Amino acid sequence: MIELKDVKKDYGKGEYITHALQGVNLNIEKGEFVAIVGTSGSGKSTLLHIIGGMDQMSSGIYRFENEVISDYSLAKLQEFRKKYISFIFQNFALMNKYTVYENVEMPLLARKVKGRKKIVMDCLEKTGISDLKNKLPSQLSGGQQQRCAIARALASDSPVILADEPTGALDNKTSDEIMSCFEEVLSNGRTIILITHDIEIANRCQRIVRIEDGKIV
């Protein structure tokens, strides 16, 4: 599904250049649950952003279902993200003035999807927060906010979910519950790529990819 060949990403120029990715080769199959691990500054977030079309690589080839994404313009990358990618961030990225229900409905409104109520409620049921649908994010615990972010990703029905340290701000019990949510999602054939510092979280995934100094080791 995802193929990266000799992908490089540089920031800055001249003596101030940073080689964030240095020739990354990676294949990810449809329906895989992959953890990307590495120390801070190793390049794992840069790699996730390139896979998600949030950043352009300096050189190399990125194919998604045999389509060459590395040739895309910024405008075309935006369309690619909207169609294929859902993001889950450590800081949840919820809209504070909107209820849980409204946050989950957002990607459906953006795509003018019909039958939104059933889709939203199904996703809230799957993540165990249907009883919180009228609450604002400020009224939720960290774990509940992360469940809302996962429900929003589910509602978008994107084939790929990218999660950047989704359990980083949560306690062990809540982290375990969040990982169980991800494992439930896999039964629907979604592909999940997760960044984590926590090896116990990584061990819950099907495969671990370690990156250091911009290279897969």
What is the residue-mean pLDDT, rounded to a whole number? 91
Percent helix, as a range, is 25-40%
Total beta strands:
10
Count of separate structural domains: 1
Strand order of the largest sheet: 6-7-8-3-9-10
CATH superfamily: P-loop containing nucleotide triphosphate hydrolases
Distance between the termini: 21 Å
- CATH topology (level 3) name: Rossmann fold
The CATH architecture name reads: 3-Layer(aba) Sandwich
Q: Radius of gyration from the CA trace? A: 17 Å
What fraction strand?
A: 25-35%
CATH first level: Alpha Beta
Helix vs. strand class: alpha/beta
Q: Secondary-structure element sequence? A: EEEHEEHEHHHEHEHEE
Give the helix tally: 7
Stretches where pLDDT falls below 50 for ≥5 residues?
A: none
